[in-house]
Every structure is written in structure tokens, then in C-alpha cells.
Design brief:
278 residues; 6 strands; two-stranded antiparallel sheet
Length: 278
């Protein structure tokens, strides 16, 4: 899909603010959806609109009801018919639902009558989801400040410029339960579409807890004052404790982002110090 910025974007004639509004996003999505549909990525679950008659997929003959059961919303399917009336929440709900039900066709038979096309019989779900993300993420990146579909199929706010490497960096720790899983959970919680300030606060707290878990090993690398400074933010700015001594009169929308990236980068630095002692 979109692989680079072309002339008008590079020269500022099309600004980030004017590139993709919600209506344009839906038009771009419909082009991508039609492409995926024509290539058979939705056959396994949504079925085939065959020239001999509709052939059900694994979701059955009443896809609209299945979508209602999962999303608690009506009038989302058929997609192309209802897409113009989608709200932003409707749109992202359907993106996630389609991601979960995208599957690459591997083998089958070609139905020649009226050039009906391939009828797949074997599928690869993981490859289907990967290709769905590959197709949609360049489009979602261009909307507002940018969004993307995670490997788990969740809509996430696109990472801040210059920080995507940190978010995707391999966590140098073998302890998944106490370190890696908690870091990954915090990152997802912080970046999730429409995450609340409480969600972000909890993500910061989870990173602070990881750092607390590593604290005994930190003593070998930091003096007491530097060690205490690392925990000052979480302990005294209303992240981990709730009492009258807490400093809470600050712009949380701004400072939570700083706190999150501060702790995430600190954890990566600490883990590398522990793993590569000198």
C-alpha cells in the first residue's frame, strides 16, 4: 500500500493535518478491504459469494448476528454498505474483528464458471493476520497522530517519533513472569486506543514495579542517592501511593508520557548493565 511519502507530502504541499481525515481513511480502508477480499483472505470465516450461490464460512450464514454478539453493535455488516456510516469506534472495532478472521488461502480449486475464482480449502490464520496488518498499518499510520494493529490484533496509538525502537526493542531478560511479561503488558496498556489516564498511570506503576523487582541488583551499580532518584517519581507523584504528601497538581496528559518512557528506557538500561557487568 503506502510505502513512502511522495512529492506533495515531502514538499509540504500536503500537510500531516490534511493528509488523512476520517472520510479519507474509510476510502483507503475500502480499497484495502476489497483487495484482501478478492485475494480470498476472508473466505475461511466469512464465506464465498460464489456465482453458483453463497457458500458459508466458519462464521455461518448470519455473519451480521455473529458480529453483533462479539461487538454488541448493529449495522456494521455488510462492510461496504455500512462503512460510510461508521463512527471511529465502529471502524476500529471492525478492523480488530477482521484481523481475527483473516486467513491466507493455501490450496483449493479454481471455479471457472463466470470467472468465479479460487475456492480455498486449506488456510493459514497466522499468515493471514500478518498480511492483514502489513496491508492496513501503513494506512492507519497516516490517520491523525497514527495508529497501528498489534500482533495481538489490538488498535494501538502509533509510537512517538524516535521512540518506536524502544517500544519494539528485545527485552534482555530471561524472567518472563516478573520482567518481560510485565513490560509488554505495560506497553500495550499505555498505547491502547483510547487508553484513559488511569490506564496510563497503571502502565507506569507496572514499569515501576519491574524496576523495584530489579532493585536488589541495582545496588551494585548505583549509589544510594541515584537509586532513590529512580523511584522518586513513582513514589511521590501519585503513581504508587495515595496520601496527602503526594504531588498531584501537574498536567498528567503530558507528564505521564514522559514518566512512561523514562521508566521504560531506564529498565532497558538497567537490564543491560546487569547482563553486561564491567
Amino acid at each position: 500500500m503506502i510505502v513512502r511519502d511522495y512529492y506533495s507530502v515531502r514538499t509540504g504541499k500536503i500537510t500531516p493535518e490534511s493528509k488523512v481525515n476520517f472520510d479519507v481513511l474509510k476510502k483507503l480502508f475500502q480499497i484495502a478491504y476489497n483487495k484482501l477480499n478478492n485475494e480470498g483472505y476472508f473466505q475461511k470465516y466469512f464465506g464465498i459469494d460464489c456465482s453458483d450461490g453463497f457458500i458459508e464460512g466458519k462464521l455461518g450464514g448470519d455473519v451480521e448476528s455473529i458480529i453483533f454478539i462479539n461487538l454488541r453493535k448493529e449495522n456494521l455488516y455488510p462492510i461496504c454498505k455500512n462503512l460510510p456510516d461508521y463512527s471511529e469506534d465502529d471502524f476500529f472495532d471492525m478492523i480488530e474483528f477482521l484481523h481475527d478472521h483473516s486467513s491466507k488461502g493455501l490450496s483449493g480449486t479454481y471455479h471457472q464458471w463466470n470467472q468465479c475464482g479460487m475456492h480455498y480449502e486449506t488456510f493459514d490464520d497466522e499468515e493471514g493476520k500478518r498480511y492483514f496488518r502489513q496491508t492496513l498499518n501503513p494506512i492507519l499510520k497516516e490517520y491523525l497522530n497514527g495508529f497501528e494493529i498489534s500482533k495481538d490484533g489490538e488498535i494501538l496509538v502509533f509510537s512517538d517519533t524516535g521512540l518506536s525502537t524502544l517500544l519494539d526493542a528485545k527485552i534482555p531478560a530471561e524472567d518472563e513472569e516478573n520482567i518481560a511479561d510485565k513490560i509488554n503488558n505495560a506497553v500495550i496498556k499505555f498505547r491502547r486506543y483510547k487508553s484513559t489516564l488511569d490506564d496510563r498511570k497503571n502502565a507506569i506503576r507496572e514499569l515501576a514495579d519491574v524496576l523495584e523487582f530489579l532493585r536488589p541488583q541495582l545496588k551494585s551499580y548505583l549509589n544510594k542517592k541515584d537509586e532513590n532518584d529512580l523511584f522518586n517519581i513513582a513514589n511521590n507523584f501519585g503513581i504508587r501511593h495515595h496520601n496527602n504528601d503526594q504531588k498531584i497538581n501537574y498536567d498528567k496528559g503530558i507528564w505521564y508520557s514522559w514518566m512512561f518512557y523514562f521508566y521504560l528506557s531506564t529498565i532497558h538500561a538497567v537490564l543491560r548493565m546487569i547482563n553486561n557487568p564491567k
